[in-house]
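To make this tangible, we now present a fold written out as tokens:
***
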Amino acid sequence: VPKNLPDNTSVNHLAIHTEDHPLEYATFEGAIPSGEYGAGKVIIWDSGTYDTEKFHDDPHTGEVIVNLHGGRISGRYALIRTNGDRWLAHRLKNQKDQKVFEFDNLAPMLATHGTVAGLKASQWAFEGKWDGYRLLVEADHGAVRLRSRSGRDVTAEYPQLRALAEDLADHHVVLDGEA
């Protein structure tokens, strides 16, 4: 699924069947050297289980419905064959046990005291302190909301951030940072 699974029911994404891979690949992360088959960086973006509701693998009218239970993606999806190895991935409207976060219940990440002594460089990161206001931003398929650290709605105070809603129109994301 080149552009990931859709996160809403109004969008379909292309899914392309690939060859079967050995089960050992399910845990492989790393780099495949240039010139080798499948060359490039390999990451495991999500893992989990699934339940199959429907499996109709007809070469012309195939349809598969699954419930995904992953660490990042959960939900009920349909794969609809359009042509040969090409399918449409569609998020179904009636979701079972859908996990939805409430923007109003989220809190910004705040700096905490700590030490990096004894940690390898790859085990820590830092964020510079800017002299702005800590904000949470929710961009939800064309709409944007901003909330201050204290929970106050400050959307009207930052009209320049409305462009985020347009840039992220196909997504539902929450950003945490300073403005």
